[in-house]
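Ticket #4471: structure output looks truncated?

Reporter: J.K.
Steps to reproduce: submitted the chain below (371 residues) through the standard prediction queue, then opened the result file.
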Amino acid sequence: MRILLLADPSSAHTIKWANGLHDKGLEISIFGLSSYEGKQYKVAVKIDTFPFPQFIKLRTDGSLLKIFYLLALPRLKKKIKKFEPDIIHAHSASSYGLLGALSGFHPFALSVWGTDIYNFPQKSDLLKQLVIYNLKKSDMLFSTSKIMAEETKKYTNKKVNVIPFGIDTEIFKPKETRNYYSDNDVVIGTIKSVEKKYGTEYLVSAFKRVKENHPDLPLKLLIVGGGSMISNIKTLVNKIGIASDVKITGFVSYDKIPDYHRMLDIYVAVSTEESESFGVAILEASSCENPVIVSDVGGLPEVVDNNITGFIIPKSNVEVLVEKIELLLDDEIRKKFGKAGRTRVKKFFNWDENVMQMIKSYKEILSQKTT
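Returned output as attached by the reporter:
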């Protein structure tokens, strides 16, 4: 089976889907609109890109610069003719979804990702109609979470299949790793892009409060990821006087992420926007036996068993975040929550099973084509 993915080749999600499907014997090719690091892909995964000028990539407001995606259409059609896919699968209901819809190729599968379905259609009626058009042209729709599937149904009457973006529990597992910290340190942290929507400033403020409440404990804060808010967060950390206990790594390649999860004792994800469609990093943390604290937005509550594997708290609430972090300072509670988290990931979010679900769906699409 030959699958052509229309997706961002630099995205960890694209890398994981491409490699996972390849490992199950599918022939995978990718058509993307950005540069990427080829070393993260299996050798047999073929990638073609049509990168746009930087001034276009910097426009993230959903403006009519989306029209520039049409420039890639002739290149895509050549790719289709050369690769002869059985299925085209676009990842995003906006840009890549538009390319898939305009290609005229069927079967055409489409996965919604988050901002493409939560934010993009809200920017203008034209962009809303664009999303409706792309969904209409698809032969099968996918979402990683139930709540995002419900959001998608605002724009289509079609069934939206929910396939979680699961975890390879053999990669994300507790074990010894190279560490910045001593065995006595209690490391609180997050592994996420440092952007406004992810609420990193609330984590920093809560950590400051917890440090003040527990001056006898060797508490550390680890922030892993790059993003536009890094300078703001560094300024805040210095302003409130906790710089000596905080490490901000900047961008880290995906293959290094498991080691950073294993440096943590408590994982925090306090996003503030509903477009947080699915908590992959939270599942990674749970798979490494770390208790988690997440905000009650988007699909995050779907990956946490409240008071069992972690805590679900109101968004933008430093008071409650402090309270829950302090509960997890207890070694026994941390270990109990962490072990329950790994057990839950293995039961409900097994990556191998998720890949097989996708392949089963592909076979269903092809069977519909022949009937």
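Triage note (M.O.): checked the attachment and the full token line is present. Residues 58-64 have pLDDT under 50 and may be disordered.
Status: closed, working as intended.
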